[in-house]
Write a structure and sequence with these properties.
3% of the residues lie in helices and 49% in strands. The protein is mainly beta and 169 residues long.
Length: 169
Amino acid sequence: MPDNIAIVEGDSVMFTLESTHNVVEVSQATWVANGNTPLPGFSLPFGGGLLLSAQLTAGIHYYVCGPHASGGMKGIINVQSTSGISENQSVVSVYPNPSSRMIQFELSGFQIDKSNSLHVYNLQGAKMYEAAVSNEKFNVDLSNLSGGIYFVKIFDGEAILTKKIMIQN
């Protein structure tokens, strides 16, 4: 969890899985068919592990759990390019990062409306915080979270922007 994530080039992904699950990159056609024929791309052993950024080129990566693909156990990693960013693209600034409590977010290129929202996930994919976004600059108090690494996803109405944050105790 989550089964669909967006990251930027240079990010790695940690898979924490039970001992009966693994990760295998597959083609889109194999993914749609709930198959498990692997591509020469990435794979992780039973129990999971760290998928390094070098294995994640810009674009969409489809993956399945080899033994359970037929049951729909699958996901997508959308790796967003860090080059060729246009001036009109939505950008999220987060500071201070790391932080022990209050984090300030500054959005640029966003069309602020009712569809904007912010979600904070832990490394296991559990949603830890959620809020509507109604301004281009706002603070979020995350003092209730334990120290560690979290992913913040901000929905701008068209895309999902993801930032990695660190909470210190």
